[in-house]
Amino acid sequence: MTKEVKKWWEYASKGYQKECKIPIDIHYGPGSPNEKNLKLLGNIKGKKILEIGCGGTQCGIAMAKQGAKVTGIDLSQEQLKFAKNLAEKNKVNIKFYQGDIKNLKQIKSNSQDIVFSAFALQYVDNLDKCFKEVNRVLKKKGLFVFSLDHPFFKTADSKTLKLKRSYFKTGRWTETFSDKTKKFVVYTHNISELHNLLVDSGFIVEKVIEPDSRKRYKKDPWYGLWDYTPKYLKMFPPTIIFKAKKI
Ligand SMILES: C[S@@+](CC[C@H](N)C(=O)[O-])C[C@H]1O[C@@H](n2cnc3c(N)ncnc32)[C@H](O)[C@@H]1O
């Protein structure tokens, strides 16, 4: 349910931004190289980019600095407050909307060159709806590039490295926050589900990337935080990335 996700992000935003200190960079999440290394977006100068689940929009700002026309959408008022301040400090012009990315009603059909999302789609309770909306707003042959939790990362205990959960148990999942006092909700999908949802929503999948998290990447602000310990990252990939194209 979107309500509980929103409630979590309104509560967690300040602490999250303070703790991670995410640099202005097009990142893909923990244990992953950034766009400078992966080169999934191509030349973005002059391109219309929609960032869904933009959070603090550190990626969107980096894109705007490269000449893209960026729009950011997020559910959380607190995250958007942070994003607007950061965009202002960086002297870039980004259009922001508050909303649920399962319904991109603010965005015209066939209007975007790229839809991008870093590490947000694991919070979405109905990816089918979201992917169909992304397809609607993209121009023909437009790119949909996103990263999210690797489903295998959720199958073990990060301290003991022992398996705790079946890979096939997808759907709503409650995580305990590191301070043990709070819980938050994510939705897991295994890799074939994600691939098939994209195909059923009108995309061709061009690339699936499972970054090798045994290495430490420059500018990875999550390395060593929470479950992203070097020991765990050596065995379990935290991030998976998809590059898809609207047919
Ligand atoms: C881990 S943060 C990632 C933020 C940003 N993309 C980044 O890379 O730093 C996840 C973000 O997704 C947003 N989010 C979760 N579910 C959403 C939904 N259904 N619609 C819009 N935003 C959502 C949250 O509010 C939060 O800002």
Structure, described:
There is one protein chain. The protein is α/β, with parallel strands linked by helices and 247 residues long. The protein is 28% helix and 25% strand. It has seven helices and nine strands; from the N terminus they run ααβαβαββαβββαβαβ. It has helices at 2-20, 35-38, 58-65, 77-89, 127-137, 191-200, 230-233; strands spanning 48-52, 69-74, 95-98, 112-118, 138-149, 171-176, 183-188, 203-209, 239-246. Helix 4 (77-89) links the parallel strand 2 (69-74) and strand 3. Helix 1 (2-20) packs parallel to helix 4 (77-89). The chain starts with a helix and ends with a strand.
Descriptors:
247 residues; alpha/beta; seven-stranded mixed β-sheet; 7 helices; 25% strand; binds S-adenosylmethionine
How would you briefly describe this protein structure?
The protein has seven helices and nine strands, in the order H-H-E-H-E-H-E-E-H-E-E-E-H-E-H-E.
**What is the multimeric organization of the chains shown?**
single chain
* Helix count, DSSP H or I runs of 4 or more residues: 7
- Series of secondary-structure elements, N-terminal to C-terminal: HHEHEHEEHEEEHEHE
First CA to last CA: what distance?
Answer: 30 Å
Roughly what fraction of the amino acids lie in strands? 15-25%
| Unreliable residue stretches | none
* Count of strand segments: 9
Ligands (ions, cofactors included): S-adenosylmethionine
Helix share, percent: 25-40%
Shape assignment: globular
What is the makeup of the main sheet?
Answer: 7 strands, mixed
If you average the pLDDT, what whole number results? 96
Secondary-structure content class: alpha/beta
Strands in their spatial order, largest beta sheet = 3-2-1-4-5-9-8
Gyration radius from CA atoms, angstroms = 17 Å
